[in-house]
Known about the structure:
It is built from eleven helices and 13 strands. By secondary structure, the chain is α/β, with parallel strands linked by helices. It has a domain at 5-174 and 218-241: Rossmann fold (3-Layer(aba) Sandwich), CATH 3.40.50. It starts with a strand and ends with a helix.
Amino acid sequence: MRRKKVVVTGGAGFIGSNLSAELCKENEVTIVDDFSTGKESNIKGIIGFGGARLIRRSVTDLEAMKEAFKSTDFVFHQAAIPSVPRSVSDPIKTNDAGITGTLKVLVAARECGVEKVVFASSSSVYGETEMLPKREDMECRPMSPYAVSKLAGEHYCRVFTELYGLKTVALRYFNVYGPMQDPKSEYAAVIPRFIDCAFRGEAFPIYGDGLQSRDFTYVKDVVRANLLAAESKATGVYNIGSGKRTTVIELAKAISEVLGCEMRIAHLSPRSGDVRDSWADISKAKRDWGFEPAYSLKEGIAETVEWFRRQDGL
Ligand SMILES: NC(=O)c1ccc[n+]([C@@H]2O[C@H](COP(=O)([O-])OP(=O)(O)OC[C@H]3O[C@@H](n4cnc5c(N)ncnc54)[C@H](O)[C@@H]3O)[C@@H](O)[C@H]2O)c1
C-alpha cells in the first residue's frame, strides 16, 4: 500500500502499533487511541514530524471519528478491550468499546466515504467447535462477552456492506504475539508472559493441564494480512493464523529452547471463558488474496525474545 490516507484505531496498542509502523513507511497515518490499554512508548518512534498523527479519543466519540476519518482511504479498526478474562469481569466496558465503538467507526467511515474498513475480529467468536481446524463457515458460539462483542462487530460490518455499500472485511486473528506485547498486565497473553517468566527464572504459569492448544500467529504476518485484505476486493470474514496447532506445553518447550533455559511449570486452575482448542484453517485467505504466513513459531519467538532483551537492556 502506497500514498494512501489511513486511520488505525487502537494504534497505540500491540497490533495497532506494529501495523502503524509498517503503514507509516509509505502512507499518511492517523492513530486514534484513548490509551485505555495502549502505551505512548509503543508509538514514540512514529509520532510527529514525518510520521503519524495522533488523536487521543475514544472510538465511541462519533464526532471525533467523523473528523478523524475525513478524506481517509482505509480504516484499520483495531481498538477494543482485548481480553476474555477482562470481559468476564467487566462486560459493559467490553461492550462499549467493542460493539458501540465499532458501530460508530462504521457510521463515521460511511459518512466520510472511506473505501474500506478492516476490522480486527477474533478466533474467540467460534467458541468450542466439534471439528478442527476452524473454518469460516462453521457455526459460532461465543463463550465470553469479548467473543460476543467481536461477533456483533462482524455482523455490523456485513450489514454496513449490504445496506450501505461500505466495503468491510473482518479478520479473525488467532493468538497474535510479537514485539510491543505487554507481559506485565494482569491479562497478559501467554507468550509475553512466558518470556517474562523465563527472564526472571520463574516457572511458566499454565492454566489447567497445558494440553489446550492454540494457533500462535506472529504479528508481522497479521500486519501483512491487514494490508492484503485492505487492497483486495474481498469483503466478509477471514481467519488469520499460522495454520498450525501448538499445545501450551509445547509452547513452553519452544520458548525454553529458544532461550536455552530449563522448562519449569506451575499448574493453575483452568480459566472460565477460555476455549479448549483453537486452530485456524487459513485456506480462504490464501485462495482469495494470497495470504501465506512467513514466520514459523520458533522464528517468531526468536524475534520476540530479541525485542524483549532490547527493552530490558539484557
Ligand atoms: N492479541 C491477540 O492475540 C488478538 C487476537 C484476536 C483479536 N485481537 C484484536 O486485535 C485488536 C488489537 O489487539 P491488541 O492485542 O493489539 O490489544 P491492545 O490492548 O494492545 O490494543 C488495543 C488498543 O485499543 C485501544 N482502545 C481500547 N478501547 C478504545 C477506545 N474505546 N477508543 C480508542 N482506542 C481504544 C487501547 O488503548 C489499545 O491501544 C483488538 O481489537 C483485539 O480484540 C487480538
